[in-house]
Amino acid sequence: METNFYCQQKCGQVDFSIDEWNKAYKEINAMPISEEEKQKLIDGDPCKQQCFDCIAIVGERRIKNQKLRDEKANKKTV
């Protein structure tokens, strides 16, 4: 049974920068290593279970989203 969960390792950093990612991608592709090794560097190893830090990120985002939904609902009733 495969479990799905948020993993910053696989989904990307919260403060993701496309410019930094593109730079790293170009550097990895320029390395004299196999395609398999390049993919492992680009994708990383998948986590087998969700760590506390990723659980905290999910929780913080849920709180922010709920706050936005509540603010939007309050504007409709005013």
- The level of helicity is 55-70%
Shape: elongated
Number of domains: 1
* SSE ordering: HHHH
Largest sheet: none
What secondary-structure arrangement, pairings included, does this model have?
Layout: H1 8-11, H2 18-30, H3 35-43, H4 52-77
General description of the model:
The protein is mainly α and 78 residues long. The protein has one domain (8-77). Helices cover 67% and strands 0% of the residues. The protein has 4 helices and no strands. The chain has helices at 8-11, 18-30, 35-43, 52-77. It starts with 7 loop residues before the first helix and ends with a helix. The relative contact order is 0.14. The mean pLDDT is 82.
Key features of this structure:
78 residues, mainly alpha, 4 helices
Please outline what is shown here.
The chain is mostly helical and 78 residues long.
